[in-house]
Amino acid sequence: MAERFPSSEPVSGDSRQGDYRHSRVVGASVPRREDPRLLAGRGRFVDDIALPGMLHAQFVRSSEAFAEIVSVDLSEVRAVPGVVAAYAAADLDLRDITALLDRPAHEFVPTAMPVLARDTVRYVGEPIAIVVATDPYAAEDGVEAAVVEYAPREPVVSDLGALAEGAPLVHPEAPRNTLVDVSLFATEGIDALFEAAHTVVEVHTKTGRQNALPLETRGVVADWDDRDEQLRVQTCTQVPHQVRTVLAACVGLAEKQVRVTVPDMGGGFGQKCVVGREEIVAAAAALRLRRPVKWIEDRRDALTAAFLAREQRYAVRAAFSETGEILALDADVVCDMGAYSCYPFTAGIEPLMASAEMPSVYTVPAYRVRGRAVTTNKAPTAPYRGVSRPQYVMVMERVMEKAARALGLDPLEVRRRNLITVFPYTGVNAITYDPGSYRESLDLCEQTLRDEGWFDRRSDGVIGIGFACFSERTGYGSGAFAQRRMQVVPGFDLSEIRMDLDGTVSVTTGTLSHGQSHETTMAQIVADRLGIPYDRVKIVQGDTDRITYGWGSFASRSITIGGSAVAAASVKLGDQLREIAAHLLGGDPAAAVLEDGGVRLEDGRLSFPEIADVAYLRSHLLPKGVGPGLAATASFDVAGDGTFSNATHGVVVELDPGTGGVEILRYVCVEDCGVAIHPQVVEGQARGGIAQGIAGALFEVVRYDDAGQPLAPSFMEYKVPTAAEIPDVRIEHLETPCAFTENGAKGAGEGGTIGAPAAVLNAINDALRHTGVELDDTPIPREAIFRALEAS
Amino acid sequence: MIQLVELSVNGERHDLAIEPRRTLVDVLRHDLRLTGTHVGCEHGICGACTVLVDGQPARACLLFAAQVEGADIRTVESLSEGGALNDLQQCFSEHHGLQCGFCTPGMLMLAEGYLADEPDATKEEIREVVASNLCRCTGYQTIVEAIDDCASRRRAALQDRLDRSAS
Amino acid sequence: MKPAAFEYHRARTPAGAVGLLTELGDDAKIIAGGQSLVAMMNFRLARPEHLVDITHVDSLRGIAVSEGEIRIGALTTHREVEKAGLGVLSAAMRWVGHLPIRTRGTVGGSIAHADATAEWCLLAVLFDARIVVEGPSGVREIRASEFFLGPFTTALGPDELITALVFPSPPPRAALTEYADRRGDFALVAAAVDLDADRVVLGGVGAVPTLVSGKWCSGTTYRARAAAAAGSLELRDEPGISAHYRRGLVRTLVERAYEEAANG
Ligand SMILES: Cc1cc2nc3c(=O)[nH]c(=O)nc-3n(C[C@H](O)[C@H](O)[C@H](O)COP(=O)(O)OP(=O)(O)OC[C@H]3O[C@@H](n4cnc5c(N)ncnc54)[C@H](O)[C@@H]3O)c2cc1C
Ligand code: FES
Ligand code: FES
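That is the input. Now the predicted structure with flavin-adenine dinucleotide docked in place:
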């Protein structure tokens, strides 16, 4: 297969400068290393693992939204054939999970999440007890035999209900059910700007609660290993080190007594980037029983009891000049975070993101925002692909559209008058935006749809066109996360690289691929730095024993930060190789060139195996001061505010006046994520993201009834769109390289999801323009479209 | 409540003593350790469990193993003989029709069953069939393209063989 | 989501199946394609103690066309009908779930399950198909118009088996259409029309497939007939869908079904 891979170009002494333009494998859509095993059905996902003597767990879950637990009786459970053990909170004595922000009490109220509910249940589906049995069928039989007596309380089932005077308190320590309440920026004189403004527009919107919905549900296999004196935890998580820390603390082990490894993973999208409760209980049961325990979440639990996201309410005012310049923005954001704060991000994840970044791609001179997280009796929330950006981008793009309508201007023209075009740009929100192609992407997106003739087909009540301009901060370094004031501050990444005797390389990354192709793209980065084919590089990820520390994969950080660390480690290894070769051949290490799997100097060439031979087997030949072995470690962090990818999405919809149905006729995405390591992978991320954004705009929502019962326990109700609903997407690339990542790359993981809801909503409203009706909530009810068109 | 069940999977015969309530997908994955077939919902909608039963794509989560005694069952493990990916699998790789790969075995078996039945399917018909299964990663476009490409290649190869035997 | 335990019984003949049902009593259930039943069992919403598997009863399979009649064995799958060239019966199958559901799901199972929006239930009522049933006391036929009694409730006795459906030769000018937000879902509203008989059957507007013929004068436009059909219904607001919207869908879908029937 090796000849299918382009060979690497020589990498000269200045590769440290990130000389990506001269590389050959980076930028090529080479075959993915992950594909053969996944296509052959030979991947290893967590449910594919079977250990001798393994037991299977399921959970007794709360049937009430809010109640005191009067009693939990598991005696019948233990009598069910096949059931080996059943434990409630009192049996296991696990420490609570608490995520913290370094913020004053009026801004943040810490709350604890018990691993198993102890006295109170706060949402339907909350785990109360674990049942462990010889097979999953018996485990469910056992769950059915549990008797839990509740003293129900009046549940809090909406954000408004949570904030209402005299509402019951989900957590007694959180007055008004408010976990986070920040008021930020408040530019001086902002009220006067509103008073004096020619036009003020308002957007009020509510977005539906969504499930990130990895197709593989959550799961774990845990067992105690006497030889290693370790609890081995194989689990599909985006953040193995954080799971280790919390799990060790909860069950009372030292960190080195817990090894978390991550098998192949069927998606995560954020739902798996927080520490879950069931994994910890299953591990505790394995520890107690000294037998392997597996827990695989079933779909009903995944739809009702897993981490959810995105239920937000915005009340926004924006002041505009007569000519369409935005003058001021005033926003109130309330996020319904459900019953608990997630670790490590806390319930602040959504409101803090929205508050900090809402001005988006526009030059907003004055800004004031209040961001709140309220707690309700619903399943808790976690970050989900895009985190708040799909929502606030939708709000900002509605602001632009409404301003254009109010002023009688072309909405694209209004955007152009406000887009950031001079970089770096430091906004009123104190964020510095690195160079991007905001204006260019809008121009190209519009032109593409014009050239395809869609503007001629626009027609009232039938065909509408909508756009969304946005940027996306990627590569949040520790500086950017520190601004959130999380007590645990993610950011850097560490990479350790090693070359073995035969010249092959293994390299660790603290990031973790779960569909994003890092086994390929990270290998491409290493290959170019060292001058070897990328299939000679093995990526080591998702193992707390083999990786010193990592923050996992989320927030489009993997290539920007992880890829940079991998590149930096490669360069260090390259320096070692050059130094040894120069010593052996006689010459100047600075003049040595890495190419074709070896080092070339004026007076000859040594292959990597030849150098490795000396480094390991004949170390007496090494230059003075150079130790044996070929290994290096490097870390990387993004200084400052991170790097911003950007894009414009353009959507054409067709409405069916007879049904209110929506069909997406055309989708164009013009994106700029700097240097694309693997363009096909970047396009895949964009398309998949767009599908999830469309899902949020048109299909998916988790509703609850007044008693707090979730109304979407199956895929019949939770309507994940299929190939019949998701259109083909034309993608155009622009490239504004990032100046401060090693490869010039920016993140590409979330953009699709961010732009789609705004663009779809705008397109529908464009088709409804003549009716005077504007739809601002998602998912958009077809009935609302039907009624708007019927009335016109 | 143990039942003797004889299954034919990928041309191999297996004798099992199982509870009748075990679904085909659990038997394939956990009793026969053919873990290529996945589970995503256990109520027939996601399609991750799609296998071929007598050549037809079917949901292995909605069948009890006991029901398909005597049927010819094919799973994703049957596609790559001798370790080499077949033409459909290669098309998936070339078109980047998989990211996390969780939906992939179901998509492959859906497509194999369908193309065997409808070799002349148009791209729009293929899209309609792909709508049978859920994928959360790709947005479907590259899956449809991969299957469509494979179908055209198979048609071209068939034409080629016909032409050659005619001459 | 694993089903509760049950005992499995395999029938080889219709009489054998009926015998098992009689012998095992109320806790026994037939399993055909399993495309409705197993999903419910996985959720433990159904928990029969005995399953009588009829999938090996070969005499229940197959389609026979004879003078003026189409006889479809109960075990015939949606997919088999789809490929059989039976006019509207085949054409309607594209609305039943997706391909892998249609390869297993059966005609008899759909009728017995009696979902009020199921395509087979609509078609049966539209043409007043005869439902052939075998029980302890022999074979009887039930007209579709008398078969569906309520939500998921039919005139079938607990120890009876559906063996076949008999349709009149498919009228050339009939059509079925429906609307759901997402492809392959059970319809929000479904409409089936027989243009020559001027019969309209609706799904999603009541507990059973609803026949609304004869309430308008023939000769009016399709739109007027659709409006009359919609106007004749008693509908209530439900969470997420108002009576007004549902009525609107009926109007649209009936008109479209008429047009499709007329244009073939
Ligand atoms: C994802 C999905 C989507 C679907 N979409 C649709 C759709 O859009 N439209 C639609 O109509 N259906 C749909 N279905 C259901 C499908 O059509 C089923 O096949 C059908 O409803 C039941 O047929 P079955 O053979 O699978 O019956 P089973 O599930 O085996 O049985 C269903 C019921 O009928 C009884 N029964 C079965 N056969 C007989 C018989 N011969 N005599 C007496 N009783 C019998 C059983 O005891 C049981 O109570 C869908 C199913 C799924 C999983
Ligand atoms: S697991 Fe069978 S369809 Fe989802
Ligand atoms: S590739 Fe991940 S679900 Fe399809």
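Chain B has a mean pLDDT of 97.
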